[in-house]
């Protein structure tokens, strides 16, 4: 295995980590409108992810930075090609981050309601758009011989990618509902469980369609295995949720995300961004990558930093392991 | 295409706007993290309540700032790919590495431990909670180092070779990129300037409360801490700035000649106090100068030769082919002056402040103030200032808090615009760095979106800051004074509300 292959795996790992972690905090953001009945319940939801969402988001920055360093051509084509969708995602991430931090800092109804709208929409839209983006990456986009994206925004909004967007949106919301059931006590916990079952079934239908389409299009044996794992894990997540085993259910919804992302990257390899105009113009792990020297340094860095990050982020989840409910939310603001 | 709306121009404006905006929060974040950590350390060591109150007060202002710093930082990383894709293709092999290092090492650190610190008051034992804010502080400083190393490479590329076949620059020595003199001096200059910003911020807000005789013990401590920070940071900023200047005279002579509006080389070279010139003709029409000082700034003596803009432009034309290699000279000249002027003014006011509020030295016993009193403003040995004059001093102190921010903003504008027309000095021109596939409409859209969003957020941010500044330090609760002894919190009362919740 050459270093650029290692880096393909590492970038897949960073995206997987991002979707696993921010996946549930996007989901919780969406649930603030789907699940919570009043302001206090919304605050319970927001507080389940309060200590961790910022750390979760850094997985995206790492994925971006690592792509820049390990596959500059991929980074350049992807980010300049998907300009407007990325602009919307950035806008949402900015507003969402500020919303979490600022919502409770004024005790006025309108102020808090506005930020709550922001949390909902700015969680929903990126959760959808990331699926659209990855759908397009896997499917291939109009890339010319100079590695430039020459399509337009309308090209990105094709049925396959839009289905991908619906899958990430429902999957993340399901993942978030399971997480909510795991992290809360009281009434909200029971409702989160009930909603999770319905969301899980919806996700299963959409995911089966999207992953099956992917498999039919570009799949091989390895991707088929990943797809089966994803589907089985999703079924297991729904079943364990019904059985009231919240920890297991969350683990399984996590495995669904991991396997689904793994499947997308498996169908991609050795391309990183296929060209739909001419196969020879596709960006691959070889023609898009940095020099072996840079990759070597980066491998050292990732080899030391990534396990440490997982260790101390894991510790954070341990510190905040207690379930919370409306009784833990102070009355003021 | 109309040059004023060319994608290159728009992309540059967008980069300038987003960077200067981002950099309003960065220095405050870096310095307030460390100052808050220092105050919390004082609390853990002495158990004096005023330190805990101060920690909570400054910690809250720090959090309002870091929220903005974090979210605007994401834009910075993404816009290299969005607006400057040819730059990313050309330098990704080198420039991407420190960026990835920043995310993997520093940013994860900072953002994970900030969550632990915010929500950990009733979940972590005292000392572990304290360690979290120090981790955040270390994270912010490391983060700054990697970013400044990346930026220094653009100012002075080292440790690379050009691969003609792939049409890109390739890394040959990463250690040199991280350890070159440009990176080290720029890091020290930026970090010390960050503490100047944070110190002045603290002084200004403490002065606001002291003028009203509110929260005196906390604000008195904050005032002194702020003043000492301003003075120490101000001195170090000047020293590191001098080092950085000498490095730049060697590495980017054009930038420094432009900073001085020195059109033709001179020996000894004078320092320009005021100049008004004609850029097309290449000379100054009005010039007020101090002889010899520029030679000292550049080379450390008073009579050496310093080359001028016209000389360097000719040299660069011979080296890189025909073209105009001059940056925007009025911006470089005035940017350099605003940076130094506002930086020095804040330092001077810091010295004056510490001298006026001193307690022990030279003061007759009657004029000394106790720990719980508003510090005296004393001008002469035996006479306190009149209350009216005292009030003006506090107001001045409040406004001074913006001085270092103006200085650092101009510092970045000078550094980045002084390098033009190069994006990587001597290697890649800015016009060759923009995304070729991105349309004018797209860049214009994103520039308008970010500018408007940032403007709205600025208003919200300032309003919140003002609200929390006016509110003053919080009253301490039972929970604050009895931190848990176990990780994850005690089981004293399972239904007790959280110490901090969104």
From TrEMBL, chain A:
Any one GO CC term of the record: plasma membrane
Localization: Cell membrane
Keyword Nucleotide-binding belongs to the record: no
Superkingdom of the organism of origin: Bacteria
UniProt xrefs under Pfam families: Cyt_bd_oxida_II
Keywords, alphabetical: Cell membrane, Electron transport, Heme, Iron, Membrane, Metal-binding, Transmembrane, Transmembrane helix, Transport
Alphabetical list of NCBIfam families matching this protein: cydB
Name the record gives this protein: Cytochrome d ubiquinol oxidase subunit II
Source organism (scientific name): Streptomyces qinzhouensis
Native organism taxonomy: Bacteria, Bacillati, Actinomycetota, Actinomycetes, Kitasatosporales
From TrEMBL, chain B:
Membrane disposition: Multi-pass membrane protein
TM segment ranges: 20-45, 57-75, 95-119, 131-154, 187-211, 223-244, 336-356, 392-413, 443-466
Localization in the cell: Cell membrane
One protein family per Pfam: Cyt_bd_oxida_I
Entry-linked InterPro entries: Cyt-d_ubiquinol_oxidase_su_1
Superkingdom in the source lineage: Bacteria
GO molecular function: electron transfer activity; heme binding; metal ion binding; oxidoreductase activity, acting on diphenols and related substances as donors, oxygen as acceptor
Predominant localisation class: membrane
GO terms classed as biological process: aerobic electron transport chain
Entry keyword Nucleotide-binding: no
Family as reported in the entry's similarity comment: Belongs to the cytochrome ubiquinol oxidase subunit 1 family.
Protein name: Cytochrome ubiquinol oxidase subunit I
Taxonomic lineage: Bacteria, Bacillati, Actinomycetota, Actinomycetes, Kitasatosporales
């Amino acid at each position: 295995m050459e270093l650029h292959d290692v880096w393909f795996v590492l970038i897949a790992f960073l995206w997987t980590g991002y979707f696993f972690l921010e996946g549930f905090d996007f989901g919780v953001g969406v649930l603030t409108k789907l699940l919570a009945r009043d302001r206090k319940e919304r605050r319970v939801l927001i507080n389940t992810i309060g200590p961790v969402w910022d750390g979760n988001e850094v997985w995206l920055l790492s994925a971006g930075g690592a792509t820049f360093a390990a596959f500059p051509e991929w980074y350049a084509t992807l980010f300049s090609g998907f300009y407007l969708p990325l602009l919307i995602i950035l806008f949402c991430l900015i507003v969402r981050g500020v919303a979490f931090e600022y919502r409770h800092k004024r005790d006025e109804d309108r102020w808090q309601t506005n930020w709550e709208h922001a949390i909902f929409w700015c969680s929903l839209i990126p959760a959808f758009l990331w699926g659209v983006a990855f759908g397009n990456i896997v499917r291939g986009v109009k890339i010319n011989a100079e590695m430039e994206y020459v399509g337009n925004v309308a090209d990105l909004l094709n049925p396959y990618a839009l289905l991908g967007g619906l899958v990430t949106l429902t999957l993340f919301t399901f993942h978030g509902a399971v997480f909510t059931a795991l992290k809360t006590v009281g009434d909200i916990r029971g409702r989160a469980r009930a909603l999770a079952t319905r969301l899980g079934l919806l996700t299963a239908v959409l995911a089966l369609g999207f992953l099956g389409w992917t498999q039919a299009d570009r799949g091989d044996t390895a991707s088929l295995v990943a797809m089966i794992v994803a589907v089985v894990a999703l079924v297991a997540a729904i079943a364990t949720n019904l059985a009231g085993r919240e920890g297991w259910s969350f683990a399984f919804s996590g495995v669904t995300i991991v396997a689904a992302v793994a499947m997308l990257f498996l169908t991609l390899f050795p391309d990183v961004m296929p060209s739909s105009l001419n196969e020879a113009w596709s960006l691959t792990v070889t023609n898009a990558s940095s020099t072996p020297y840079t990759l070597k340094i980066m491998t050292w860095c990732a080899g030391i930093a990534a396990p440490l990050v997982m260790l101390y982020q894991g510790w954070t989840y341990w510190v905040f392991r207690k379930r919370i409910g409306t009784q833990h939310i102070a009355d003021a603001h | 295409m109309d040059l004023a709306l060319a994608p290159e121009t728009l992309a540059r404006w967008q980069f300038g706007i987003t960077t200067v905006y981002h950099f309003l929060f960065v220095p405050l974040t870096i310095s307030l993290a460390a100052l808050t950590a220092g105050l919390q350390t004082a609390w853990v060591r002495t158990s004096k309540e005023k330190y805990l109150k101060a920690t909570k007060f400054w910690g809250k202002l720090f959090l309002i700032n870091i929220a903005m710093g974090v979210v605007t930082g994401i834009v910075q990383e993404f816009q290299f790919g969005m607006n400057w894709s040819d730059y990313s293709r050309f330098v990704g092999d080198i420039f991407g590495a420190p960026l990835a290092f920043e995310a993997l090492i520093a940013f994860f650190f900072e953002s994970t431990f900030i969550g632990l610190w915010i929500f950990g008051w009733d979940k972590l034992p005292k000392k572990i909670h304290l360690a979290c804010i120090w981790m955040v502080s270390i994270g912010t400083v490391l983060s700054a180092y990697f970013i400044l190393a990346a930026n220094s490479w653009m100012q002075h590329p080292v440790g690379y070779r050009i691969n003609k076949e792939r049409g890109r620059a390739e890394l040959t020595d990463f250690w040199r990129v991280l350890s070159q003199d440009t990176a080290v001096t720029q890091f020290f200059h930026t970090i010390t300037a960050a503490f100047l910003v944070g110190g002045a911020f603290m002084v200004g807000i403490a002065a606001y409360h002291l003028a009203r005789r509110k929260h005196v013990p906390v604000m008195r401590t904050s005032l002194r801490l702020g003043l000492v920070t301003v003075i120490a940071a101000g001195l170090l900023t000047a020293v590191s700035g001098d080092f950085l200047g000498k490095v730049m005279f060697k590495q980017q002579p054009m930038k420094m000649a432009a900073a001085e509006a020195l059109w033709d080389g001179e020996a000894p070279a004078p320092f320009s106090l005021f100049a008004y010139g004609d850029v097309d003709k290449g000379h100054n029409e009005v010039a007020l100068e101090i002889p010899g000082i520029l030679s000292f700034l550049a080379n450390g003596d008073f009579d050496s030769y310093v080359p001028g803009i016209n000389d360097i432009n000719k040299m660069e034309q011979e080296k890189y082919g025909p073209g105009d290699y001059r940056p925007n000279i009025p911006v470089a000249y005035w940017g350099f002056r605003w940076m130094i002027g506002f930086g020095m003014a804040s330092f001077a006011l810091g010295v004056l402040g510490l001298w006026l509020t001193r307690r022990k030295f030279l003061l007759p016993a009657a004029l000394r103030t106790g720990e719980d009193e508003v510090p005296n403003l004393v001008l002469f040995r035996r006479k306190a200032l009149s209350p009216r004059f005292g009030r003006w001093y506090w107001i001045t102190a409040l406004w001074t808090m913006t001085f270092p921010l103006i200085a650092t903003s101009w510092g970045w504008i000078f550094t980045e615009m002084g390098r033009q027309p190069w994006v990587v000095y001597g290697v890649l021109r800015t016009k060759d760095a923009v995304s070729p596939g991105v349309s004018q409409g797209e860049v214009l859209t994103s520039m308008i979106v970010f500018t408007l969003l940032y403007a709205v957020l600025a208003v919200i941010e300032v309003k919140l800051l003002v609200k929390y500044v006016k509110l003053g330090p919080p009253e301490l609760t039972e929970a604050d004074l009895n931190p848990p002894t176990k990780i994850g919190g005690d089981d004293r009362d399972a239904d007790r509300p959280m110490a901090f919740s969104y």
